[in-house]
Amino acid sequence: MLRIKNLHTYYGRIKALENVSIHVRRGEIVSLIGANGAGKTTMLNTISGLLPAAKGDIYFHDKKLNGRQAEKIVGAGISQVPQGRQIFGPLTVLENLQLGAYLRYKNKETDAIEEDLAWIFKLFPRLKERIKQIAGTLSGGEQQMLAIGRALMARPKLLLLDEPSMGLAPLIVKDIMNTISALRENGMTILIVEQNARASLKISDRGYVLETGRVILQGSSEDLLNDGDVKRAYLGKDYKTFCEGREKV
Amino acid sequence: MSVRNGENERMQREELEQVQLERLQSTLNRAYKNVTFYKKQFDEHGIHPGAVSSVQDIAALPFTTRKDLGDNYPYGLFAVPLRDIVRISPSSGTTLKPVVIGYTKGDLKVRDTITARFLEAGGVTEADIVQICLNPGLSGWGRALKEGAEYIGASVMPMSNMSTKKQLMAMEDYKTSALLTTPSYALHILDVMEAIAMDKNRLALKAIIVAGETLTEEGRKTLRTALGAAVTAGYGPSDVTGPGVAFECGGDSGLHVSEDHFVLEIVDPQTGRPCPQGQQGEVVLTTLTAKAFPLIRFRTGDMACAITAPCSCGRTFFRISPITGHTGEILTIRGVKAHPSQIAQMLEAQTPSGVTPPRFLVHVFKESHLDMIEVWLEMTGSLFSDEVKEVEATLMKLRKQMFQTLGLEVTIKMMEAATLDRFGLPSGGVVDDR
Question: What is the interface pTM, i.e. ipTM, of the complex?
Answer without folding.
Answer: 0.88
